[in-house]
Amino acid sequence: MSGTAAGRTGFGVPGYAHPLLAPVEWAELTRPGTPLHWAVLNVADGPGARPDPHCLEAAGRLTNAGLRLLGHLDLKYGMYDFADLVCDAQRYVDWYRVDGFYLDRAPADRAELAGVRRVTATLDAVLDGGHLVLGHGTHPYAGYAEAADQLVTYSGPWADYRWSQAAPWTAAYTQDHFVHLVHGVPRGHLDEAMRIARWQGAGTIFFTDRSDPGGAFAALPGYWDEIVSRVGPGISE
């Protein structure tokens, strides 16, 4: 397993649409000055049955720019098939040269921890070291903190995020360990959202004003330039 840039807030991009449908979004990731921690590639609910030329091109651009690309795997809240999951992981590595995996719909309860640890240990071996993110979307049982590099402890709407609180056990870890993904954030509340992330110790974020059901993270936020400037060193107009 690996880490993010210590102490620096940056973006985790959880689900841009296929590069053929979202070429601008994928191009923006390599724009100079963008503080990107990682981006997730989801070809077809996984790596697909064969290499996709558009995804190969997008993956190559990120890799050549020295940026971290994660393959999307679905843990289905614990209802995954272990062998299929490992097979998909190997395809991501062989075809797209991913640097790690985003494990979506990760279970959060104590009973599933041993199974998730088996998965992350196996994926770490497949990668020969790499970056693993558990996409719980909520605060899981504390033991999960040692099972991956990062945990998504919030994924959801702004209306709930502004009243959310961090679990007490998270105070034992640095901000590099936690991810917040928030949709429906109005432009006028960006500063407030960033303060909440900072107070709760989340160093990797993705905020968007979009709130489309099932697709809020598929496209650029309407205020992309503004949030890049606030989080990172600024951009060239």
Could you characterize the architecture of this molecule?
- Helices cover 30% and strands 19% of the residues.
- The chain is an alpha/beta fold and 237 residues long.
- Strands 1-2-3-4-5-6-7-8 form an eight-stranded parallel β-barrel, surrounded by five helices.
- The longest helix is centred in the middle third of the chain and has 15 residues, at 82-96.
- It is globular and about 45 Å long.
Question: Key terms for this structure?
Answer:
globular; 30% helix; alpha/beta; single chain; 237 residues
Looking across the biggest beta sheet, what order are the strands in? 1-2-3-4-5-6-7-8
Strand-residue proportion: 15-25%
User: Structural class from helices and strands?
Assistant: alpha/beta
Largest sheet: 8 strands, parallel, barrel
For the secondary structure, the number of strands is 8
Net shape: globular
Distance between the termini: 36 Å
Count of alpha and pi helical runs: 7
Mean pLDDT: 94
Proportion of helical residues: 25-40%
Give the low-confidence spans: none
Rg over C-alpha atoms, rounded to the nearest angstrom: 17 Å
Structural topology:
Elements: E1 10-13, H1 23-28, E2 36-41, H2 53-64, E3 69-74, H3 82-96, E4 100-104, H4 113-127, E5 131-135, E6 150-157, H5 158-161, E7 178-183, H6 190-200, E8 204-208, H7 224-231
Parallel strand pairs: 1-2, 1-8, 2-3, 3-4, 4-5, 5-6, 6-7, 7-8
Helix pairs in contact: 3-4
Summarize the structure.
The chain is α/β, with parallel strands linked by helices and 237 residues long. It contains seven helices and eight strands; from the N terminus they run βαβαβαβαββαβαβα.
